[in-house]
Amino acid sequence: MKRDLMEKALEVLDQKLDDAHHAGVNLLIGGGGAFALAYRIPIQTADIDGILFRSRIPLSELDPLVKETGKVLNISPDWLNPYFGTFLHSLPPDYSTRLKVVFRGKALTVHALGMTDLLIMKCFAGREKDLPHAKVLIRKGADTAFAHAHIEKLIEKKIPSAPKALEFLLDAEEQVGG
After folding, report:
1. Model pTM?
2. With left for phi above 0 and alpha for psi between -120 and 50, is residue 140 left, alpha or beta?
3. Domain boundaries in the chain?
4. What pLDDT digit, counting tens, does each position of 119-169 carry?
5. How far apart are CA 102 and CA 100, in angstroms?
């Protein structure tokens, strides 16, 4: 999905939420959607990684509207993918203080993770395809010292994936040259 299609999908979903008399719906996005919408970093992605955030609407009411939006735009019915929520445990407790609003409609507001928090999540995902993304975030100014300190705290707490995340971050920094 390119940025303009992501924006259109959010507009259509917002209208569907408004038509269904839902208000105050918030999404938290990460991954390629956050890269494109918040930081204008073009990235190849099939969907927007997003979850409900500080909202009263149950997922069971949101999901049909997401699928209807997919039909309207002739895109995947799963264009809004909650999978990234499995990595939220890796974020610092204050991540919400660094969110960036990327869409505000009548019923829907979309918040993107901050660059440093995106970097931390990329480190925990740790896939080969995440390395170029991490390097872009570092070049764009993600706070690597903060990311190091946070990951080291998670290592001290014996979070199993934290040592690999730190190794991933060090590798990305080395490849960027810093």
Report:
1. 0.92
2. alpha
3. 3-113, 117-176
4. 999 999 999 989 999 999 999 999 999 999 999 999 999 999 999 999 999
5. 6
